[in-house]
Amino acid sequence: MGPIILCALAAASIALVAAFPVKRESGTRLWLFAQKHHEIYVPLVKEWNAAHPDQPLVMSLLGVQSMEQRLLSSFMTGVPSAELLEVERAMSARVFAGPLESVGFADLTDRVRSEGLLGKLHPASFKPWSMDGRIFGLPHDLHPVMLGYRADIVEAAGIDVSKIETWDDFVRVLSPLLYESGKRRDGRHLLNLWETHATTLEILTLQAGGGLVNERGLPILNHPANVRVLAQVGEWIAGKEQIAGDAPYFSPSGNQLLLDGFVIASFMPDWMCNIWRKEIPQMGGKVKLMPLPAWEKGGRRTSVWGGTMLAIAKDAPDQDRLWNIAKHLYLSKEVATRLYKEGDIVSPVTEFWSDPMYDQPDAYFSGQAPGRQYINLADQVPDRFNSPFAQLASVRLQSAASELVRFARTSGKASRAELEPMAKELLESGQTDLMRHVRRNRFYAERADEQGSPQ
Question: Which terminus of the chain has fewer Cβ atoms in its 10 Å neighbourhood, N or C?
Answer without folding.
Answer: N
